[in-house]
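Hi team,

Filling in the usual template for the complex we talked about on Friday. All components are listed, including any nucleic acid strands or ligand strings, so the model treats them as one assembly.

SUBMITTER: L.P.
PURPOSE: interface mapping
COMPONENTS: two
RESIDUES: 234
SEQUENCES:
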Amino acid sequence: AQKITQTQPGMFVQEKEAVTLDCTYDTSDQSYGLFWYKQPSSGEMIFLIYQGSYDEQNATEGRYSLNFQKARKSANLVISASQLGDSAMYFCAMREGQGGGSQGNLIFGKGTKLSVKP
Amino acid sequence: KAGVTQTPRYLIKTRGQQVTLSCSPISGHRSVSWYQQTPGQGLQFLFEYFSETQRNKGNFPGRFSGRQFSNSRSEMNVSTLELGDSALYLCASSLADARWSYNEQFFGPGTRLTVL
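RESULT (copied from the run log):
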């Protein structure tokens, strides 16, 4: 079973509008971290935002916010006021466990290709 | 502060050859992880090194190997290349032990390997 599921292979959004990229995850660990990365066509993965499983508040970083619903195991990324430069692939990722119980590697979803229309 | 650098950026090899990719982490970072990205399989974890020790390895054949030097620079080697090894190979560095759930990983631009 997939540990990270991104159900939207591609999405379009109008410039200046908000967009939500979906991510659901599967883990039996109580302690885990959720990440969102942006990958432009150049290939470099750019860290956007992090949410810890014990964080009670949704994470926010500038125009990015994470809608964390722990019971539903979802961690959707919300981008407000989309810009043309936001066009890229977006990946949701999870790191399970903490300390000695974790393998440390990130588990990625398949990604969502976001296209911002002028 | 310089970011993660990877060399070379592009590489073309033929089947059966071997290849070595290099990754220089951000200064002060001791953990280096390698990932393979292909259109079919997506992003998959290869291995992670921390303080010159391989701590974790993904589900890849033994043809894939790596090492880390005392200055934290890392190399990965793929022997007996196959067509399916064509991919973007991404390196990521982090300051602390990668096992901690909050441990931001900074990625390099990747090396795009094409196997003919």
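MY TAKE: The mean pLDDT of chain B is 91. The first strand of chain B starts at residue 5 and ends at 7.

Thanks, L.
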